[in-house]
Amino acid sequence: MSVEEIVTAYHAAMLHKSADELADLYAEDALHEFPFGGPAPFKGREEIRAGYRAMWGAMPFKPDEVRRVSLHQATDPEVVLVEQDTFVTIGGRSITVPGLLVLRIRNGLIIHTRDYMDTAAVTQVRAAAAALKPA
Description:
This protein has four helices and six strands, in the order ααββαββββα. It has helices at residues 3-16, 19-23, 45-58, 119-132, and strands spanning 26-33, 42-43, 65-73, 79-90, 93-106, 109-117. A six-stranded mixed beta sheet has the order 2-1-6-5-4-3. A hairpin with a 2-residue loop joins strand 4 (79-90) and strand 5. The termini are far apart. 20% of the residues are buried.
């Protein structure tokens, strides 16, 4: 897959909350890290699949849209930077979660992801989702 196809498929997986679609973009021994907090790194395609299945399965909403803001090819030909905004509506409230993915791609598969999300926006999403749960 080309970089363009990988990024498009990555965003589609987010929109569908499909751990299988996402994991299929990764090499068997890939690493997915969350440097600004969140879960421990996912090591390997199957841990990525299981980790995202659990995370996305626990969310009581689906994203309305995942919009690519920019795509930058680094000087290292394996490294791509993807700036993105994820739009969600929870309990009638619209929240935008800005993010940055640093992807290392080799032979058409992601081998390493550093997944940076706006922690203040993530906190807003979590609070809005918690407010939906019955007491």
